[in-house]
Write a structure and sequence with these properties.
heterodimer, A: alpha/beta, 6-stranded mixed β-sheet, 4-stranded antiparallel β-sheet, 10 strands, B: mainly alpha, MetI-like fold, 2 domains, 10 helices, 79% helix, 0% strand, disordered C terminus
Chain lengths: 261, 264
């Protein structure tokens, strides 16, 4: 495998109990996995299994209780220039136009205005929003706003993208278009990404590997390499007859059938 | 923003409101005598106008208006700055808010104009008690609105900024300050009308200058037209302040939905 970009070594996260004196809640327990350069890995699991906790640790906003998260071989101790995250909410600032929103991270990192502008306009073109640079977020549709959020995430040129259900608030068709955009961008730029999702098909269509987590405390119970060609083209993958068995396997692992009873 | 007079509907409405004004002045001029209301109760428009002209010459009306306007503006600016500062401070420190909120609530519920006599005792018949009442009365709507805005910021936006390694100063400048502006301006609009009330009450309580003084003077000499003129001048001060705020607000908040296209 290529160079390791993201590595979790025995990562555990505990939170103080909601009630005073209660036992601490273990969100994730003893996670071990690596993501290689240019790899896209999805993380899937039941609600509340600590997927988002893992992303917070990866982005350095929340320290691990035990173990360590390494990015490019360096231990994550706080926010750093190697990662950028993207959430379900677009988090665009309403008083900044789209270009200025894309520049947000670069501005915080103190890059000169001309450079920021060039990077932002280039990414907006790649995200198929070139005509909207001077628009304000409220003038854009949900899908366009999320594309702008993707451009903002890529603008800081992170080594690893951490994505927490970025498309779950979108309607089914917009979602497929954005998945296509994301997959194309990731393939073109060769970025590494960890993608948290609830959507089984999305996980399979977008990734090289799917990590399945258990109920809280979240552990990785299965690792499924996706052996369908065309990771940069999820639309084609969706149509593949080989997709069905993967979905079936994930449903089985997550006990989705049983919850019907 | 000027209304768009090329739109026939807007032109009709403008003509309508001009007509209404004429009807209003006519009713004011000839209405009271028609119903047998004596002119010392409701003086007709022409009498008020003559009184206005007389006061300009012999009562230094503009001087008194200027004094009141100066106190309103000074109190407004100081109250605004104070309200903003305290609003941000409390918004960023939940501890401070928790500890101070009972006092703030008590002071907010207390009728601010009731402090006027107290301030006159403290500072005498100067401009300071009037400015102080205005500061106190302007402070609250601004502070509450800024505090609420800082509290309402999505914590994920702050986390996003932190993930890009933003420090507290940048978070304030890039997120908290701009996010507070719409409620801040809403607070200023309320405060603009309150500032005039604060200053007038201060002047009514004591002093020998300002429009509040002219009000008491007019009352003492049973000069109803003088009271009318003074009320109109006070209203004009309020309108001027309100207009300035709306003008600045339209510039600053051009990004708000519904404004984005109109203001350039």
């Amino acid at each position: 495998m290529a160079r390791i970009r993201l590595e979790c070594r025995n990562v555990t996260k505990r939170f103080a109990a909601a009630r005073k004196g209660g036992p601490p809640v273990t969100a994730v327990a003893d996670l071990n996995f690596t993501i290689g350069d240019g790899e896209v890995v999805s993380l899937i699991g039941p609600s509340g299994c600590g997927k988002s906790t893992l992303l917070n640790m990866g982005s350095g906003l929340d320290p691990a209780s035990d173990g360590e998260v390494l990015i490019d071989g360096e231990k994550v101790t706080g926010p750093n220039a190697h990662v950028a995250f993207m959430l379900q909410k677009d988090l665009l600032l309403p008083w900044r136009n789209i270009r200025e929103n894309v520049e947000f991270g670069l501005e915080i990192r103190g890059r000169p205005a001309a450079e920021r502008r060039a990077v932002a306009l280039d990414l907006l073109a790649k995200c198929r929003l070139p005509a909207f640079a001077d628009h304000y977020p409220h003038q854009l549709s949900g899908g366009m706003r999320q594309r702008a959020a993707l451009a903002r995430t890529l603008a800081v040129d992170p080594a690893v993208l951490l994505m927490d259900e970025p498309f779950s608030a979108l309607d089914a068709q917009t979602k497929m278009v954005l998945q296509q955009d994301l997959a194309r961008m990731l393939a073109e730029t060769g970025k590494t990404a960890l993608f948290v999702t609830h959507d089984l098909v999305e996980a399979i269509a977008l990734s090289d590997r799917v990590l399945v987590m258990s109920q809280r405390p979240g552990r990785i119970i299965e690792e499924i390499p996706v052996d369908i060609p065309g990771r940069g083209n999820p639309m084609e993958r969706r149509k593949s007859p080989r997709l069905g068995p993967y979905v079936a396997r994930l449903m089985e692992l997550l006990h989705i059938d049983e919850t019907l009873a | 923003m000027m209304p768009d007079f090329s739109d026939p509907a807007i032109r009709r409405m403008t003509i309508g409101s001009a007509l209404l004004f004429v009807v209003f002045v006519a009713a004011w001029e000839w209405g009271p005598p028609l119903f047998g209301i004596p002119s010392y109760i409701i003086p007709p428009a022409s009498k008020v106008w003559h009184e206005f002209v007389r006061m300009l010459g012999s009562d230094r009306l503009m001087y008194h208006t200027g004094i009141t306007a100066m106190q309103v503006f000074a109190g407004f600016i100081l109250g605004m700055l104070l309200g903003m500062a305290v609003g941000f401070a409390l918004g960023m420190s939940p501890t401070a808010e928790f500890m101070l909120s009972p006092y703030i609530l008590a002071l907010q519920i207390a009728p601010k104009v009731a402090f006027a006599p107290l301030f006159v005792i403290w500072f005498g018949y100067t401009v300071y008690p009037k400015i102080l009442v205005a500061v106190l009365i302007v402070f609250f709507p601004v502070m509450i609105n800024v505090l609420g805005a800082v509290r309402a910021i999505d914590p994920d936006i702050v986390r996003l900024a932190k993930s890009f390694s933003a420090g507290p100063v940048r978070i304030f400048r890039m997120i908290e300050f701009p996010a507070s502006l719409p409620p801040f301006f809403a607070g200023l609009r309320i405060a603009a009308t309150l500032a005039v009330i604060g200053v007038v009450v201060g002047e009514l309580v004591g002093g020998n200058q300002g429009l509040g003084y002219l009000l008491t003077f007019g009352e003492g000499s049973a000069n109803t037209p003088m009271v009318f003129v003074t009320i109109i001048m006070l209203t004009l001060i309020g309108i001027a302040l309100y207009g300035i705020i709306v003008l600045i607000e339209n510039r600053v908040l051009h990004w708000l939905p519904g404004r984005a296209r109109k203001a350039v």
